[in-house]
Amino acid sequence: MTPLTLVLFFAFFQLRLLPHAGAVARHHHGGGVSLRSQQAALLRWKSTLRGSPALESWRQGTSPCSSNWTGVSCGVVAVRRGHRASSSSPLAVTEISLRNAGIHGRLGGELDFSALPFLTYIDLSLNSLHGEIPPAIASLSRLSYLDLIGNFLHGHIPREMGSMGLLGDLRLAFNNLTGRIPASLGNLTTLATLIVAHNMLAGAIPEELGKLASLDVLYLGSNLLDGHIPESLGNLTSLRYIYLYGNHLSGPVPSSLGNLRKLRDLDLGQNRLSSGIPVFLPNLTDLNTLYLAGNELTGFLPQEIGLLAKLNTLYLYTNQLRGAILPAMGNLTGLNYMDLSDNQFAGSIPGEIGSLVGLRFMSLSQNQISGPVPATFGNLTGMARLDLFSNMLSGPLPQEFAYLTHLEVLSIANNSLSGELPPDVCKGGNLLVFQSFLTPVVTTKCDVYSFGVVVLEIVMGMYPSEIQSLASREQHRELVMEDMLDKRPSYPTIVEEKEIALLVEVALACLQTSPQFRPEMEDVYQKLALHKPSSFASPSHAPRPEEIIQV
Predict the structure, then answer these.
(1) At which of 296, 323, 350 does a domain end?
(2) Which of 42, 110, 380, 411 would be 389's cystine partner, CB 3.0–4.6 Å?
(3) Name one Pfam family in it (predicted).
């Protein structure tokens, strides 16, 4: 996973799923633990860590509760001895929150969890903790929130954690954890969020997870899990998010998932699931995302798929689905993203697809679809990318394509289309066309934009919309150039430096926001073939030679 993916992943769950920290525990049977011993435990742990300026406020002679120790919060607790409440420990450390604090070290070792019995909240995510998760962490019987996402922890998830009866949020994603998911986690009846994605966990998903009646989020994606999806997950009627993508799960999608009427996201992509599209889909009336791509699903699209009125994202690509694309799919008026590519769909594209006016991305490529492209596609005015390549489509593109002014990528090659590409389809000025027309006609300004995108995709490996965003940063051209050059190859020669600089200069000129400032393709050819100056960009848009950075 890239750093950006990790940040986006983390931000998504912080915004949507972060619960309020658990309330401070009020009673402790068997005697209190002094604040001084809690201070000593934290200072011993600090002494084993390195590279964390955030912990400079943790000093001898100061109190974690009255001296503003970074990342430490305290609460008033009552300690019960026998039948009488005692105030021998009125303050105690209840929270440690050190997300992205630059901590390097171990979670276990010198951190004495038994000296911190009042902890209810721990967030050590996005640090550089290594080693194993110590089984002793289970002694934190009051803990309700544990977040260790984005560290370098390895080893197994301790089965002892199944005794942490107040735990409501367990986040261990983006580590190097191995072994099986402990069946004992099924004892955590207050657990609302379980996130252990992007590790190397193996074996079957425990049936015992079906006992987590309070579970709202189940995130097990990108591991090495195998076997069938347990039927017992259908007992988790509070579930809203299931992410099991990127494992080795096989067999059918269990029918019991039809009981999960609160489900919003169902992501089972990139597994080895077989059988057909689940028939229980109409039960999931709140479903927003359905991701079943990259499996071995067969059969036809069920008519009931058109009942998912709240569906925003439908990804079914790379399966073995066949039959027609149903007119009922025109009822999915909330759809923004649809990918049915790399299947065996046949027949014509129903005109009802033109009712999906919110679509921004649609791919029907690599199927056996025939007939004309519907004129109703002209209603899809927000479409940014349309992939229809490698089908058996015929006839001309409808003139209504001129209304698709936000289109950035149009992929229609390997069909039997005829005639001309409607000239106005490039009216927006930023269209990249992959096509195989008999008599293609597009404006030269459209051609050079496509050329610029292709050049910078090769150099940068980015999507057209990302390139457009970078190219528009005219006030920071030096930074734009630095972003654009791929630093992975070996250091170039002087001649190669000049050639790369020239190529990037030309590509940026082709990507001017206003088509009137773009060069003609003949000018581009002259510039590259003859290596001679050309005044094909306006002074306010063209990069100056001194702004081309050294690779």
Answers:
(1) 323
(2) 411
(3) LRRNT_2
